[in-house]
Specification:
Shape: globular
Order of helices and strands: EEEEHHEEEH
Radius of gyration: 23 Å
Number of strands: 7
Number of helices: 3
Length: 213
């Protein structure tokens, strides 16, 4: 009989913020609960414009498919009674929201440059964000959507339960400079996908009712 303490704990999904130059993790965000479902969408990048009628480009791909992910993540302070917080789950929400905000310091720095007459202010670069869903999926991503539904509050109106709908776009080797750590991680992911595809047995034409092509 397997004892309760001997049960294998599931690997948790999460987000890792990485220094793109040193490759060291700056922050690790572990999801409290693994999402029950993941929605993935892949759109091929054809070389020719859709419907353009260029027959020489019909089978050509100019880069990796554009891949997007969507899932819901739950945060529930009532599930962690040993971790009281006077702010409810504000800290956990703030960590996720700061993935799509520049820091106040960087905004003030750009405002100062603009005030001195700088003609072109460089857009603020966000850190490298990785989404981790098991060892087979470590993906550089950009958060494209973050919807927060708070449905539980304490006496001071601090939220203690929320559902976050998160949308992400996978950053491929076409999106990042050659040699960038994110580009190398994407190529490693693509190589892993190729190995997994190679393990899948090929079908037979006869199964499709064909004797040949």
């Amino acid at each position: 009989m397997t004892r309760f303490g001997e049960l294998v704990k599931p690997v948790r999904a999460g987000i890792v913020i990485v220094d793109p130059l040193r490759g060291t993790p700056q922050r690790i965000i572990v999801l409290q609960f693994n999402p029950d479902t993941l929605q993935r969408s892949l759109a091929p990048q054809g070389a020719g414009a859709e419907g353009a009628g260029d027959r020489t480009e019909a089978l050509r791909l100019k880069g990796p498919a554009v891949e997007t992910w969507k899932f819901d993540a739950e945060i529930d302070a009532t599930d962690q009674p040993d971790l009281p917080s006077p702010d409810g789950i504000h800290p956990q929400l703030a960590v996720l929201e700061m993935l799509i905000h520049p820091t106040s310091g960087s905004i003030r720095a750009n405002q100062a440059l603009a005030a001195t007459g700088t003609l072109e202010v460089t857009p603020i670069e966000a850190p490298l964000t990785l989404f981790v869903w098991g060892s087979n999926r470590v993906l550089p991503v950009r958060i494209t959507e973050l919807t927060v539904t708070e449905d539980g509050f304490d006496a001071n109106l601090n939220p203690f339960r929320a559902v976050l709908s998160i949308g992400m776009r996978v950053l491929s080797a076409s999106d990042l400079p050659a040699g960038h750590r994110g580009a190398e991680l994407y190529l490693a992911h693509l190589t892993q996908k190729e190995r997994l595809a190679g393990r899948s047995a090929s079908g037979r034409l006869a199964t499709l009712g064909l004797n040949g092509l």
